[in-house]
Amino acid sequence: MLAFTGILTLASIMLLIGPINYFQKHLPVPVSLDLASSFSVAKEAVWERPFWGTGPQALVEAISRHRPDSFFSSTIWNLRFIKVGNEWLTLLASLGLGGWLAFIWLIISFIRKIWPAISRATDGDEDFSVRLGIILAWLALTGASFFIPFSLILYFAWWLLFSLALSSVFVWSKNNNPIEIDLLRSRPVLLVTLFSGAIILITLVVVGFFGQRFIRAGLIFFRAQQSIIAQQDAAPILSDMRQAAALNPYEPQYQISLAQGYGAQALLLSGQATPDQTQIQAQTQKVIDSLNEAKKLSVLSAYVYEQEAAVYQSLFSLISNADQLAAEAYANALLIEPNNPLLLLNLGRAKLFEAQVIKKDDSQNSQAAGLVDEAVSSLTRALAIKKDLPIIQLSLSAAYLEKGDYEAAKTNLDQLIAANANDRDARWLLANVYEQQSLFDLALAELEILKAQQPENQTILDKIKEVEGKKMVPAEQ
């Protein structure tokens, strides 16, 4: 029976990870967070819900905030390739202190009873070596959990080995001078444990048979990503993305990537000598449809809304209300993660950009002023949460400049320049502040510093001429 179970388990694992040629694919490198980042994720989760944790899905979302920019957020790849520092930090974050302590109690209670059971099982047990091997394998896997994160397969293997080891100890205790085992005070506990192992085994088989479609979708999608990096032709890339979305219609990342692909096509069409507006509108409509589909698949994912906003921002010249749609997307993301400083930063910048767009129409000046106030509010919140990110303070300075609060803008910019004298963006904004205040000598002083750093920069040279011209006008008057 044990041999049959072992063979079935190996077959299930092979089915789960796919055929042999699956190993020959250029798979992404596993993303393992360092212990400091892993502990930070676990601490955030425990702080939010100390006793019962935030749940596995919330854990994946928390980890995804620390992912590299090049790592795409696909559910099946998240499960297999996003790794916390070790398994116990994963348990602490997803199950809280209550679940974490329960697992410790489970393991310690079982280990305390293993050796007495083994010492009483040496006589008359034909399967002694097999049972001992199962227990040692479980102990090895348990020990490894303190140093490595578990993949989906290792997690299932741990529970399967535990149920088999528990069964072995129960048999030894029953047949050879039974001893009291805390975990086995009643037969239902054993039955539940064995039933859990059977469910896990069945799950492996089911995922193995029916998960091939999703795994294939992941491989095709990865091929498309590699083609993008290699800057290959857009047509086969879009074809691969459509195929991946068709194979796995439940993955929002595929829809987001499709939207990005359609957007790139629309931009290419708009850059032609005689743009075909009908085709451009068709592509932009596909962008909107794909983004809406992604939101349906993952309503509570801030990442999806964040990507939606980024797509709309890239298509500002093609979609009339793209700036407004981007701001709405960031606002929706903040409903899910209200204290995310990067989302607050992006929302503030989107509001500021929207204000600058509609400010061109004099009849909408009041609405533009309201948007600038919203931008200042969002950026102020972001800066309060994360004070060590210069881009937030720089963006807040730009918002103050747009609002006309020059002293507030100057205060922030002076702080940035004091921290980094080579901050060209801060000096450029400060020159604009001085220009708006008609302090042309101070503006020229900042621009001369920039000119010394970048003597060939035509934008800086043109700005110097512009400010010098403004300086001469009142002098002539």
From TrEMBL:
Keywords: Membrane, Transmembrane, Transmembrane helix. Pfam families: TPR_19. It comes from the Bacteria. InterPro entries: TPR-like_helical_dom_sf (IPR011990). The chain crosses the membrane at residues 6-23, 88-108, 128-148, 155-173, 189-210. This is Uncharacterized protein. It comes from Candidatus Giovannonibacteria bacterium GW2011_GWA2_53_7.
